[in-house]
Amino acid sequence: MNDTTGRQRFAEAARETRPDLALLCLLIAGEADPDAGEEPVDTAQIELDRLAGLLPALGRQAAPRRWAEALAELLGERCGFHGSPADYRRLESSLLTEVLRRRRGLPILLSVVWMEVARRAGAPVYGVALPGHFVVGFGEPYGQHVLADPFDGGRILSEEEAGLLVAGATGAPLAPAMFSPAEPAEIVLRVLNNIRAWAAARPERSDVQLWAVELSLLLPSHPARLRYERAELLVERGDFVGGAHEMEEYAEVIDALEPTVAETVRRQARAARAMLN
């Protein structure tokens, strides 16, 4: 899968009325290994289908706790999907193909596995983007539901325990709005944010940070400042003209609201162009 084909598919999939979360995460993984072609995507989809086929036929009317227990028994206990602190140091922990292969990953990628397997089996499932720790909900988000933590093998959480996770990660108290279902585009942006953060801590992997930024910019909604981050990366990687052009366009976007910042960015663009002389 070349960059153009993969990114075109990603942009199109992100703009679907009901985006395919698994496909978007697999296309992200394709950026990390562009020479692998379509086979890893197909293999991963087959594996998700296979895992879903191993779940008992509970039906959507089954109690949310029963669904959560069934997923924990299959994925957490029988298949060994879970996470550990060491997984935060690995790029593979943010790539769905690798998470399915290694059965290790970050909370959000393990939650994607839980959601995609459960969805295929007909479970009422959704993602919950708690600050600092993504989990999964079963049932009705604003009615009867349970929360499960795939990072901990699918352990069922009380709201008090969820609050402790949030407090431990951010120091902030739990708010009811935090339990709202996460939309696919929101989940994908958070996955890409994790990849950007991993790469930003490793200056030698600016290539990874750049493609993560560029995929983020293909999402229907994204922070405008990502354009500035892309511009800085282009300059850092020696594309002075491309980086300067991106800085100038970003300055135009923010000029009305932040004229001082816009002028600073324009000066940076001129400095980047001067590096060609």
TrEMBL record:
Superkingdom to which the source organism belongs: Bacteria
Location of the Protein SirB1 N-terminal domain: 45-193
A matching Pfam family: TPR_9
Family label: Belongs to the UPF0162 family.
Protein name: Transglutaminase-like domain-containing protein
Source species of the chain: Streptomyces roseoverticillatus
Taxonomic classification: Bacteria, Bacillati, Actinomycetota, Actinomycetes, Kitasatosporales
